[in-house]
Amino acid sequence: MDIVSDLMKEAGTGDNLSLISNTVGGDGNAVRSALGMSLPVVMGSLAATAAKPGGAGVLTTMVSQAGSSSPAGNLSGYLGSPAAAGGSSMVSTLFGSQLAPVQDAIARKTGLPPAVVGKVLEIAVPMVIGFVGKIAGGQNLDAAGLAGLIGDQSKMALAGSPDAAAVMEQMVVSQAASGGLSGMMKNMLG
Hints:
Layout: H1 3-11, H2 14-24, H3 28-51, H4 55-66, H5 75-80, H6 87-95, H7 99-110, H8 114-138, H9 143-159, H10 162-177, H11 182-189
Helix pairs in contact: 1-3, 3-4, 3-7, 3-8, 3-9, 3-10, 4-8, 4-9, 6-8, 7-8, 7-10, 10-11
């Protein structure tokens, strides 16, 4: 099981990619590239959140709010009302003050404006959280099991995307400068 690869197959091709591209206002190839970076970065940020004190509880709450279905399974319904899935609040919870640097880094790689990358993230975060919730519910995972699942998936996703790993490394450096999660993230990326 590879959550990020499964989501890219589902959302990064065909009609679903067209729907996302039309919704965010970007070129299909650039949006696919942004999804390809965003999904692993989201997974890495989830792992970073899980490693914080109380972070597993935050994730459990986010998964509960997202429900057990991924927006990718009903992308047209979700894109009709992305606010209903809480995309922007999830993005804020997950990235906090690191959101602008993450958007800028993905924008530089994809050629999309940072605002469009932000819209891609508002779609990607609920997709990942919904998919994680579906798996966690099917396996009856508690908070520790959820954190373990996310940690394993994060390592796999970041190993498969050097660009996303570089974005996460920038977050580590920035957070280390402000006394953040450097040790945990270095272990996760190491």
